[in-house]
Amino acid sequence: xxxxxxxxxxxxxxxxxxxxxxxxxxxxxxxxxxxxxxxxxxxxxxxxxxxxxxxxxxxxxxxxxxxxxxxxxxxxxxxxxxxxxxxxxxxxxxxxxxxxxxxxxxxxxxxxxxxxxxxxxxxxxxxxxxxxxxxxxxxxxxxxxxxxxxxxxxxxxxxxxxxxxxxxxxxxxxxxxxxxxx
Length: 182
Ligand SMILES: NC(=O)c1ccc[n+]([C@@H]2O[C@H](COP(=O)([O-])OP(=O)(O)OC[C@H]3O[C@@H](n4cnc5c(N)ncnc54)[C@H](OP(=O)(O)O)[C@@H]3O)[C@@H](O)[C@H]2O)c1
Known about the structure:
It holds the Pfam family adh_short. This protein has helices spanning 24-35, 47-59, 77-91, 115-140, 164-179; strands at residues 15-19, 39-44, 66-69, 96-99, 147-150. By secondary structure, it is α/β, with parallel strands linked by helices. It has a domain at 15-104 and 127-153: Rossmann fold (3-Layer(aba) Sandwich), CATH 3.40.50. Bound molecules: NADP nicotinamide-adenine-dinucleotide phosphate.
C-alpha cells in the first residue's frame, strides 16, 4: 500500500475556502490546508469558533487566514455573489472550495418529518452549495488549476431508514459532483 505524504508547503500560494470551518472536519481541513501553506478562508455561522481556528492557524505561523461569517441557512444569490466579489478583490483568485458545512436534521419516519426541518436541511446542504459553487466558479477559473470538493456521506448513495432529508441531500450532493463540474 502506498502512503501519500504531501510535501511541506505543497499548498503554498493557494487560496482555499472552507465552509463550516469552525468545527469538525471543516476545522481540521482548514488547519491542515494552512499547515501546508495555503491561505484559508474560514466560512461559518459562529464567529467565535472561526476566530478560534484563526488563532490556531496564526499560532502555527501559517499564512494569515480570513474569516467570512455567514449563516448558510440565509444564503441568497446576492450573498453568494458578494462573497465571490470579496474573494476576487482580496485574493484575485480561488484555488479550492471545500463545500463541507451540513446539518443532520432529524432521524425519523416521513409522517413525523417536519417540513421546516426538511427545508433547513435542503437549504444548508444543497441550495447553499449550489449558490456558492455557481458564484465562485468565475473566481476559481482565475487560478491555474482549481478544485471543488463536495462532502457526501455513506447515506449519499445508499439510503437508510429514517435518515430522511440528510440522506436525500447527500444523494443530491453526489449528483452535483457529476452534473455541475467538468
Ligand atoms: N462526522 C461524520 O462522521 C460524517 C460522516 C459522513 C459525512 N460527514 C459530512 O462531513 C461534513 C462535516 O461533518 P462534521 O461531522 O465535521 O460536522 P460538524 O462537526 O457538525 O460541523 C459542521 C460545521 O458546519 C457548520 N454549519 C452548520 N450549519 C451551518 C450554517 N447554516 N451556516 C454555516 N455553517 C454551518 C457548523 O457550524 P457551527 O460550528 O456554528 O455549528 C460546523 O462548523 C458534513 O458535510 C457531513 O455531512 C460527516
